[in-house]
Amino acid sequence: VSAAVVLVVDDDPQIRRAVERALTARDLVVRAVSDGRAAVGAVAVDEPDLVVLDLNLPHMDGLTACREIRRSSRVPILVLSVRDAEQDKVAALDLGADDYLSKPFGAAELLARVNALLRRARTPTTARHFRLEGLEIDIDGRIVRRAADALHLTPTEWRLIETLAATPGVLRTHASLLEAVWGADAPDVEALRVFVSQVRRKIEPDPRQPRVIGTDPGVGYRWLLEPSP
Amino acid sequence: VERATAMTSSFLRPHAASWQLRAAYIVAIGGPLAIAAALVPFRAGLSHTLIAFAFLVPVVASSWLGGAGPGIAAAVASSAVFNAGFLPPYGTFSFERTEYLVAFLAFLTMSVVISWLVGIARDRAIAAEDREAEVRLLFDLSHVLVSERAEGVTAALSGVAGRLGFVMASVREGTDARVDELAFPLRVGDAPVGTLVFLGDRPPLSAAETRVLRTFADEVALVLQQERLEHDLRDAELYRRTDEMRQTLLATASHELKSPVAAITASVTDLLARDELKPAVVRDVLEDVRASTGRLEQLIVNLLDLSRIESGALVARDEVVDLDDLLGPAIDGVRERWPDVRIAVELADEAAVVRGDAVLVERVLTNLLENAARAVRGSSNRTVVVHGSCADGRVTISVVDHGPGLQFGDQSVVFTPFYRLHESSTPLGAGLGLTISKGFVIAMGGEIWAADTPGGGATFAFRLQGAP
Fold first, then answer.
1. In this structure, are residues A54 and A62 in contact, taking their beta carbons and an 8 Å threshold?
2. Does ipTM exceed 0.85?
3. Min CA distance, A204 vs chain B (Å)?
């Protein structure tokens, strides 16, 4: 297997070099550019396996670059931003970014996100079975067991679990979840929040410290369990 | 008659109606007599019908000149002369035959009716003319109001006042008017806008004139209200933009602060996570960490300076500053960072000393030089000229570059915080240097500005008091 190619896009030379150094040390091939227009060009030429994209860029901002890249490529995009504003992250995710990382970030966090995105791109998940301590979730069998007892779930609760479990580790924005679970007559984000906590009370071993459905405050939710064979 | 007196002093239709009335009565009495004098020698050979028609001429003429009054006088006079001079027995008012009586009465009735009808037609024509004059005047005033609007309502009003024979017209706050002045309250709906006052000696206004001016006052009220709304809108816009600028400042400052921190965090956590540390990698990381902390330090110093300036806590010393002493270190610092930028100094002797705060002047020079060096980096002409001249006891120092120059409209915005001259400017230029320079120069009682360099490029200059 040849080494994965990661395109790093950041206008700050020190951050660019830090990311480059951290990824190179883990046997990834890194290409680095410093503005949005160059990033769109590099995606077309280098065909990277992953793009690490800063949102605050000269010439073409990150959001525009994200949209431009998505016109022609399905390459996973990890958005970097020092902005606290959740709406920027949501905008990037809705434009086709796959995940985000807020600056400042640690190298371990960066590597975890990068690896998760690369792995998912290489081996699309087909696993439909998850285990956590006494909890067992079988998507195909539509069964959730806790300590050998089958739990009763409503059809909507099932749709939420199915939607999230289909993309383990991937952040799903509120909007995309509302669309996937309820379709056209989706309730508001507040209703989604209440609904998720209701599902958590049913399936999480400890609903106060969720290990099945994770929250990205103000942005969305993600499935935390790794598929088991 | 009431209208006639008003008209004599009126700016509406300045008719000489009294002479017309006098002329009408002269025609009414003199006309029949003249016709009689002309026709009496031929009265035997002329038919009564023809003579009667001739006598209708003064009736119609005097009615048209003076209205129904002179017309009826003419009718009576004509009838009398017609009867005495042309209906036998001549020279008397008696009738020889009954048919003469009938002819006389028919003529009298017909001429009265004609003079009455002509008078009505005449009055209507005059009224129509008056209306037209009113409307035309209102058009004129509106036109003046609108066309001279650019110079402000005051200029437009003085034009209108002149047109009406007043000395001047003005708008006053409030709605009370003195008894001895001509004032029109200005209101739009229920909202009072002010009072329109006409000043100057002129005869009292007629009803028509008052009507015109009242309508005009309504237009002025609308114009003023629109002006006030526009003013309010500008205020709101200014406030919104100030607020927006603060938001941008905060967002940019936090971005500029977080970026180097993010770089340091990423680099250091990367090292900590490695199993073995190669000295070359450690050195590489430390170099980057040093660059990031340098940026942080620079930014923090600038932000603190900015807050000192904005809070008014900055007090500039007033001392004699030798620019030659300051330029050397400032130029050395820039040469160290940008070795391929050439800096030339053209400082006139009398421009070498200024009054100010040496520390602040040095910071301003350094900021302007760094700004210029950064601008010419990618240009073919990488020369920056520091030029100093003295005029009227004030020294002007210009830093002239031939880089890409200011973009259109940049002249004043370049001094706003975090403004970047070029989109491609890297975060290494924190975008506070010019803002702080401006604050410093103003604190020393001077001024600072940006301009285009003739032939391309930008010139930043500041002016301080000279020290003779």
1. yes
2. no
3. 32
